Structure formats: C-alpha cells, structure tokens
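== Sequence and structure of one protein ==
=== Format: two labelled lines per protein ===
==== Data for this protein ====
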Amino acid sequence: MQMKTAGVIGGGAWGTALAQVVARAGLAVTLQARETEVVDSITRDRVNAAFLPGIELDPAIRAKTEMADLADCDLVLAVPPAQHLRGTLEAFRPHFRPGTPVILCSKGIERGTLKLMTDVLAETLPEATPAVLSGPSFAGEVARGLPTAVTLAVADADLGEALMARLSPPGFRLYLTDDLIGAEAGGALKNVLAIACGIVEGRQLGRSAHAALITRGFAEMTRLCVALGGRAETVAGLCGLGDLVLTCSSPQSRNMSLGLALGEGQTVEQALAGKRSVAEGYQSAPAVRDLGLKLGLDMPIAYGVAALLAGEATVDQVIGSLLSRPLRAETDG
C-alpha cells in the first residue's frame, strides 16, 4: 500500500510529537486538534504553544480542526486521551476509509466497559486495520528528535514491516511485534504504577523502595498481560518494562508528578488543580482496579493507588497495607 499521507488525531503534546516524527519520515501530515488555539498557533507560528511550547514544528505538518480533513490519509494515528478514544473515533467514522491502518497511541483501559483500546477501535471502526504504538517516550524529547525506541504491534507481518520501514526517521526506532494485547497491557498499567512511584518519592522513602515498587509493579503488569491473552515477553520489552522505567523515573511524567504531590501531602484535588492535561493514570486507575478484580488478579499496588485516588484510603494507609502483606515466595505474587 502507498503511504504518502498521514493523519494524527489529537493535538496534545504526544499527538504533536508523533506528527513531527511522521513528517520527518517524509509523509505529509494533517494534525487534527479540537482546540482552535492549537491550530492557529501551529499555522501561524509553527509551534504548539499550548501543549508543546518552544519546539518548532516541521513545515510538512498542517493543523486542522475538522475530521473531514483526514478522509484521504493513507494511515491514521489516534492519540486522544484513552477515555475519549471512543467518542473521537465515532466522530471520525463518517470520514474513514475501510481498510485504512489506524495506529492506536493512547494508553489505558476504558472506564465502564473495561475494554482495551483495540476493543474500542473494533467496535467503532470495525473495518480499520489496527496497530498499537507504545514505549518509553517523552513528547518533548521525541519532538526534538532525541533518540527513542518504541514497540509497534501489528498482527499482519507484511503491514508491520511496511509501517516500520515508513515510520522510522533517524532517531526514532521501531521494534515490531504481533502481540497487540501485550503492547496495550503495559501502557494501560504503567501510568497507575507511576503515580505510586511518585508517592514513594514524595514521601522520601528512598531509592530502595523505588526500585522495589518498579519491580513488583512489573510483576502486576505481567499478570495483567497474560490474563488478557498477551505474552509475558512482550511486556518485558519497550512497551512494558521500558515504558514503566521511564514513567516511574522522572517528574516529566504527569503521572509521577501527580504521585509526588500526593506523597508530599497534597490532596488529589490540590494535586490536579490548574492542570490543563489530567494524568492518564488518574483516569485509568478505577478501570484497572475493576478489570483486575474481574480477572481475579493480585495487583496490590494498582488497587492501592485506585483506593487513594477515590478517597477510600490515605497515603499512609496504602503504604501500610503494602508493607503488611503476608510474606511469600517472590514468584507467588
């Protein structure tokens, strides 16, 4: 298939960064943003001043507000917040060409339905060819062209090879898998775990506790992946462990910074006040807990974060419950 034009749905920091990547790969890019201020800023100044300030954007990127402007694109990257993906794809449906690859770049589990993003895509655009892009990547670094490696999950090997070859400009390296569920599972949980790591930092519990939390959090991630039908080795790669390490290691992460504020004693309302972009982990935590309980999984860190964000437990109560868990073999949970 020809790949000369690409559409990016979502004018936030990550959507803008991915538009930059695709433009550097040589495609003409239409970035659809619902905020007119974003479209005006990019059109006038070649900068997304609202969400990615200070980074000049490639001239091949044109910004539009209407979904209709994506109708003729050869492939589409869907980058809205996970909880808005369904509504966004439904709005795009009248302009969608059957068979067009749709690369899902949102991370999370849909609240209420407990569906993965690939499930949402299958229900809203059943004639789309699905793919998942996930891995350790901060938008600002990607947009500036700093070295980044991520996972691209595509069921069809030939399409996967074509996408990988077409969307790999210098500095942005794709690794291919056919395990879409595994690629999604890591991204769905890592934002919740990053909140926990932020709490550890905010409470000044030390680097040992931080390392232990990442490791035990990765065990929860692996359990979720396998229970959903993915492969453990997938989340051991960039889209799972890699993404977890990055998101849990820097206050650049909105999720870790939320946890940091909570660990320092702020309430959830105080920590979220004035934030234009809400941390995905805050939105996904209830769905992660509901799905884990439905599957009968032992995920104490994720459950503790969900309880804290829902006002059901304090930081000290969550920490105490984790430290008082029964002693067991490491591989038992």
